[in-house]
Amino acid sequence: MRLSVRPALKCGRKYAFPAAWAAMFTAGVGFYEPAPSVDVASYLSFVTVSSAHAQPHAEPAFLAVNAEPSSLIFVRHEMSEADDTTVRAPRDSAPGTSGGHGRFAAPGNAVRRQVQVRAISPRSADELAGFFRDVAYTLTDIRQGEAVPPLKVDRVPGDLGAKDGVERKMLFITALLPVILEANQRVLADREQLLYLRNKLATDPRMLTAIERIWLDDLADRYDTTIDRIDELVRRVDIVPPSMAIAQAGVESGWGTSFAARNGNALYGQIQVSGRHSVDVPWKPGAGMPQPFADVGEATDAYVINLNTHPAYASFRAERAAMRARAEHPDGFRLIGTLLRYSERGQGYVQFVRQIMRENELSDFDRAKLSSF
User: pLDDT tens digits, residue range 330-358?
Assistant: First the structure.
């Protein structure tokens, strides 16, 4: 009996290791891709398995989910009518609606691609500087190609004027840059979707879905035009170069130190066109008075929509569209030359703003991008 068992044990040792690997391979295949039926014998036969035996992987079910929701509801913003020479009033937004604009967000992935910003509320200029130190955010790094941390300051610190000129301007520029980039980011998301829908309309207008038509109509309404003028809408839905926005905000608000800037976030020199305002400020409402805003982000949004819609700035939009047609990035230094009607000083205002842009090398920020933490 001992003699008959020993040869069998030797044979068992010879095939035990391959058998173990075959069992593991069979279990792995079963857990990786369940199949209706599995031929176990084909896996237990000791042959080389070629790539021809591999089965194609079916697309996971979650990838087939429709990314286009039936509707994304946002609060609609209204704008007062203005004549050809006055600056438009800001859009009133309901509390808790920051980040959304219009009744509907863009279909598809346009909104989801945006970088989410982190709101900060500095009580002093030193605290503002501390926020920037905490995330190692310096303008020198941005000029060298680093991305801008997505910090969104809600208001300019009241003691900013106590800092010397160089530090005051540095803090103001550092604070405003991500706010402008975030506003531009939302505009670009809308523009991307708009260009897609324009191409779709050119191919076959019947291809547009109901939600796409509603979104397009709402976008046209926000930019004071109609969808039958879609090329004009494309000219309007575009960014304002950060260099231009920062320079104008610096000039109009005294680098954040003016009374209207400190008390009403009025950074861009916009004035009221009606006898009311929606935020509590120390001055009485009335036509020609500084337009107050709830925060710096709302002021920036109103500035961007003003340049993109007001008849006085049609030449700005035309020149920006010409740059796009030449595959050029919008150049703030050149585009500020079209805003002769932004100030009663006309050409003198344009020259002064350009001087500010040169002295502070603001054109370095026209291609800056927001980072994500």
Answer: 999 999 999 999 999 999 999 999 999 99
